Fold:
Amino acid sequence: MSSGAASQVTAIDVMSAEQREQAFPVLTGAQIARVVAFGAKRGVAAGKVLVEQGQGDMPFILVLSGSLEVLRVTPQGSQQVVVHGPGNFFGDMTMMTSRPSIVTARMLEGGEVVMMDRRCLQELVQNDSELGDIFIRAFIIRRINLLKQGWGNVTLVGSTYSAGTVRIKEFLERNGYPCNYMDVERDEGTEQFLNSMHVKPSEIPVLFCGKKTILKNPTNREVAECLGFNAGIDTEHLRDVVIVGAGPAGLSSAVYAASEGLKPLMVEMAMPGGQAGSSSRIENYLGFPTGISGRNLTYRATHQAEKFGVEMMITTRAMKLACMKRPYAIQIDGGRKLLARAVVIATGAAYRKLALSNIEDFEGTGIYYWATPMEAQMCAGAEVIVVGGGNSAGQAAVFLADLSQHKAKHVHVVIRGDSLESSMSRYLIRRIANTPQITVHTNTEITALEGPTKGKLERVRLRNNKTGETATLDVCHVFLMTGAKPNTDWLEGCVATDKQGFIKTGPVLTAEDLGAAKWPLGRAPYFLETSLPGVFAVGDVRAGNIKRIASAVGEGSVAISLIHQVLSE
Structure:
């Protein structure tokens, strides 16, 4: 989706001049010649459709003469996104994957183009640093702009007070998929639009996927299937390495594996980024002195993985590891199996739920397990509670209390311990202490959640376990970021774990562990290797892991260097 000097920008003229120049560059004659070497010239008549919305493996298109019109098609009709002129190129990050196109590309004025398939584009990007930087930068900026403007080929109709709506919005945003959102309580014409589509307001959330498909309160899996997230991925092929989990550790493994010549496949049951992907602001990650949000870090890492050709299966759950013979087979939902010479387990850990009988009544509409701008908007001017004493809880509290961004009126941090000293980074403790809008409640826990109806939280009861005192707060939003349970149920005893279920690796494995696992090799397990040869554990799922994003990223890269040794054995 590009527009050069002669292009007519329509919906994206909100960009700054600098952004537009980077998003829609005009290639020089020398650069065009290098593109031609990887593609094929083709004469095209006016009106010819070169890419259909929904088409998989869409080609890269460089306009040599004439003009190319980009359109998006939604239930509300067709809309022009931009027009490309000579020297401009068509595409965004979708081109680096096998996912379907979210737009249609049609010749507005007949001329000549250069067309290139995805594999040739990846080869060009990886081998020509100048063009690679130009293309990837343009692709990312274009997609970010579409996300900001809500310019996608799908329309979501829902309510801020609907847990299903919040879930679907979060899923699309975390996967970098632009969506036109209509709120039944806030947007005029929404009910009329639903009536025209023969859908009742009571059936929300409703996702209009493409021209005809209507999904009513769909699961994330159904959304992914409708949008073709996993289209074109060969599940029968033997992989060098299968990476289970797309948090920082998994993404790091994928980037290093692909950049070093391996053919990795990544499997993620929810959304890329893991818990880190929902962090509001990370200030202690090397190279980002002003901080970076978990979402932006995830976007960068995901695009980096796509650049090197990593394939990623979203909403795909690892059900079982067949660990009796090699190559290993990972059974995924749907009965399919993924074959791998090596496996990286990066499934992380999940926040524990409070032991309250009605907690599920408020999940997504009052109880949250992450704090992103989406949740922050709902908390504007209100009092909120953050439960937990780790860095994630601290980052969330500071983020939500930022009044300059029109967020919460007051943030109550609830912890069961005596202080934050033993579990939170010093810079966050200082930030909390210096923020008047944050109050820390020590030795305290939530004892009850109250609301007049299911799905509408209004009050929270607290108890100080040291003094026995109780209190009731008029709070509608609670963020739970406490405890951690490793996501290892699917391994069914294939690897040795500690008492909490975290996976033992390398020097942590005892002689008894290796004897019980019948370790078959003359060498000891490598640093991140489990009790199963060629199977590695990285990140929060690993026993003894340091709970820092930098540590997870480092482990992901080290695991790949060790896998090279395993594959050469």
